[in-house]
């Protein structure tokens, strides 16, 4: 028996998962390990199907010819037998005459013959969606502001409505009518308009330069951190003035490493406290939803109280500044050890818990991107914890330490205006992230990326030690700015923050409750997944308005450092590159997920991040 029955590129009929309906699909690939075909529907939806769920088109043509050659007596007898239990039968007081029933049947037969077999299953529940109009040759009208359609997708349709549409589009033969009641009893099968998640297959499209690129990043990222910190310590931090390399033994301090471990486990303890609400994340591939405790802001308050107590008892917080390189080395060592642990444990993870983008089969690539999607120790989610807690809160603590170090080194009674602006802007950013902690559950980091070296290093090293670069720079290179300049920079930061927060709030509110009267003015493009793509408000201005706000704020954080050196602007330059790359990843992911709806969204909103530029 051959290994596979259908070839790549072959057009076949694929059964929609969870239903009895077949649609025209094209085979794109075959997984020899999982024995699954990856097929593509006409609307762009891609799913993985078993061979038993795929049939050749010839079998459907034969069935159609057999059905059309049936004798009129047989068809009439079938009609009479099914009349007593037909779900589309009208009420007793409104029964149709025999001639009306016959005309209706002929019209229905004609409709079925003219209907394309490639109609996606979600048309059964949204006959007014834009894609339906394209297949039926009707004029397109892709924008909607009737938010009730999304609500109906998430609730059970009335039985009569479901049966009526099934009667119209069903491809089953008449002899299968005897099994209708068994089908109707399985309501949940038909109501699941969300695409069925496929079993993770091998990652074929490698990002970040593939194996060679990820290997180089593992080496270059720690080196970049050390280079930036060494440059800030120099009197002349110009790019051509390369800093002398320190002795390796000077980068390691056991006491500093102990302080770092203490910090990490204190934040873990705060995370485990039974305070704050518990929410559910997005559905996993097996349909299960993980639970998350939202208490990041409480952890920040407890941390602030602990830091205040240390300062009250005259603890020298500028110890962080004096041993900043050693703390960075400790964080790098810890993130590397954590990444090794994560990869080893991921080798025993179930298939449904493997990250979509970290299953290439190449050790170095999967080690970097993360092989397991949601590694947990009991109910303790390692990725979710590291995403916001040790690094993000640590960033604020480091900024405070730099502020105190500036006052001590330069004998200042109050911090400089530049240092106050940097601390205030970045404090606002962190507090906002912790206050809106629940929003992170829908980000690519949580829903798509595995937890490997990329996120572990980014959360524990890059965020606290690179994002605090402006404050670290100002300690050794004080910059004086006037109050008008400070006011202008503050206005710029406020504009960026307003765009960032209002865009994110608009998106999150629409996802949580599309029927909110406050959102009644928003228009959207419906998609096959049941979600809508906003085409008004900030999301009709550019595709990623939150990225635009982020970049404006990043510029405002660097401006207080003056223009003597480019070093403090590393953050904004890096951030633009990061968000452009992330936008490209998101673009590719959304195109696969939403198909034609995403193409229409891109036509409606042509600019990605920068209006009229990019």
Automatic annotation (TrEMBL):
GO biological process: cholesterol biosynthetic process
Bilayer-spanning residue ranges: 212-230, 256-275, 296-315, 327-344, 455-475, 481-500, 521-542, 562-581
Ranges where the Tudor domain occurs: 4-62
Any Pfam family matching the protein: ERG4_ERG24
Enzyme type, top EC level: oxidoreductase
GO MF terms, alphabetically ordered: Delta14-sterol reductase activity; DNA binding
Biased composition regions of type Low complexity, renumbered to the chain: 55-75
Membrane topology term: Multi-pass membrane protein
Record EC number: 1.3.1.70
Annotated Basic residues bias: 76-97
Keywords for this protein: Cholesterol biosynthesis, Cholesterol metabolism, Cytoplasm, DNA-binding, Endoplasmic reticulum, Lipid biosynthesis, Lipid metabolism, Membrane, Nucleus, Oxidoreductase, Phosphoprotein, Receptor, Steroid biosynthesis, Steroid metabolism, Sterol biosynthesis, Sterol metabolism, Transmembrane, Transmembrane helix
Subcellular location as annotated: Cytoplasm; Endoplasmic reticulum membrane; Nucleus inner membrane
Major subcellular site: cytoplasm
Reaction equation(s) it catalyzes: 5alpha-cholest-8,14-dien-3beta-ol + NADPH + H(+) = 5alpha-cholest-8-en-3beta-ol + NADP(+); 4,4-dimethyl-8,14-cholestadien-3beta-ol + NADPH + H(+) = 4,4-dimethyl-5alpha-cholest-8-en-3beta-ol + NADP(+); 4,4-dimethyl-5alpha-cholesta-8,24-dien-3beta-ol + NADP(+) = 4,4-dimethyl-5alpha-cholesta-8,14,24-trien-3beta-ol + NADPH + H(+)
One Gene Ontology term, aspect cellular component: nuclear inner membrane
Gene3D superfamilies: 1.20.120.1630, 2.30.30.140
Known pathway: Steroid biosynthesis; cholesterol biosynthesis
Family classification: Belongs to the ERG4/ERG24 family.
PANTHER family, A to Z: DELTA(14)-STEROL REDUCTASE, DELTA(14)-STEROL REDUCTASE LBR
Protein name: Delta(14)-sterol reductase LBR
Native source species: Drymodes brunneopygia
Taxonomic classification: Eukaryota, Metazoa, Chordata, Craniata, Vertebrata
């Amino acid at each position: 028996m051959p290994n596979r029955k259908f070839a790549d590129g072959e057009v076949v009929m694929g059964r929609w998962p969870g239903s009895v309906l077949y649609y025209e699909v094209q085979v794109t690939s075959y997984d020899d390990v999982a024995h699954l075909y990856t097929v593509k529907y006409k609307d762009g939806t891609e799913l993985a199907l078993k061979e038993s769920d795929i049939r050749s088109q010839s079998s459907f043509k034969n069935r159609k010819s057999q059905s059309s050659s049936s004798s009129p007596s047989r068809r009439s007898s079938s009609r009479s037998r099914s009349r007593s239990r037909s779900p589309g039968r009208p009420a007793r007081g409104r029964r149709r005459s025999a001639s009306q029933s016959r005309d209706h049947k002929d019209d229905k037969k004609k409709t079925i013959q003219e209907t394309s077999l490639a109609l996606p299953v979600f048309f059964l529940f949204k006959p007014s969606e834009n894609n339906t109009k394209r297949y039926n040759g009707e004029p397109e009208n892709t924008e909607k502001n009737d938010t009730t359609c999304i609500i109906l997708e998430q609730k059970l349709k009335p039985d009569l409505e479901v049966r009526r549409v099934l009667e119209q589009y069903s491809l089953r033969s008449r002899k299968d009518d005897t099994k209708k009641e068994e089908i109707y009893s399985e309501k949940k099968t038909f109501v699941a308009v969300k695409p069925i998640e496929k079993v993770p297959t091998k990652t074929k499209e490698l990002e970040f330069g593939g194996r060679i690129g990820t290997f180089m990043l593992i080496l270059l990222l720690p080196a970049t951190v050390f280079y930036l910190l060494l440059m800030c310590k120099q009197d002349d931090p110009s790019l051509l003035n390369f800093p002398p390399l320190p002795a390796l033994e000077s980068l390691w301090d056991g006491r500093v490493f102990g302080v770092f471990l203490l910090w990490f486990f204190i934040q873990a303890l705060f995370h485990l406290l039974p305070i704050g609400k518990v929410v559910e994340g997005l559905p996993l591939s097996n349909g299960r939803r993980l639970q998350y405790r939202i208490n990041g802001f409480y952890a920040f308050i407890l941390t602030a109280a602990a830091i205040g107590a240390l300062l009250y008892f005259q603890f020298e917080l500028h110890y962080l500044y004096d041993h900043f390189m050693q703390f960075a080395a400790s964080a790098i060592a810890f993130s590397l050890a954590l990444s090794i642990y994560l990869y080893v444990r991921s080798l025993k993870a179930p298939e449904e818990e493997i990250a979509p983008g970290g299953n290439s089969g190449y050790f170095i690539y999967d080690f970097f991107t993360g092989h397991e999607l949601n590694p947990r120790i009991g109910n303790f989610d390692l990725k979710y914890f590291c995403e916001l807690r040790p690094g993000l809160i640590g960033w604020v603590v480091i900024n405070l330490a730099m502020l105190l170090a500036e006052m001590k080194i330069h004998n200042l009674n109050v911090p400089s205006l530049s240092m106050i602006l940097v601390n205030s802007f970045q404090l606002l950013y962190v507090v906002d992230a912790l206050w809106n902690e629940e929003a992170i559950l829908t980000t690519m980091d949580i829903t798509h990326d595995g937890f490997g070296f990329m996120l572990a290093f980014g959360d524990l090293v890059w965020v606290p030690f690179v994002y605090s670069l402006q404050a670290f720079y100002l300690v050794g290179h004080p910059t004086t700015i006037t109050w008008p300049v400070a006011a202008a920079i503050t206005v710029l930061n406020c504009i960026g923050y307003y765009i960032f927060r209002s865009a994110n709030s608009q998106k999150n509110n629409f996802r949580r409750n599309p029927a909110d009267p406050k959102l009644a003015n928003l228009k959207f493009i419906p998609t096959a997944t049941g979600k809508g793509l906003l085409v008004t408000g900030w999301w009709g201005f550019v595709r990623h308005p939150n990225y635009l706000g982020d970049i404006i704020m990043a510029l405002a954080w660097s401006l207080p450092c003056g223009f003597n050196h480019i070093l403090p602007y590393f953050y904004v330059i890096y951030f633009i590159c990061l968000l452009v790359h992330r936008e490209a990843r998101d673009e590719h992911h959304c195109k696969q997920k939403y198909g034609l709806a995403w193409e229409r969204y891109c036509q409606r909103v042509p600019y990605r991040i920068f209006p009229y530029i990019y």
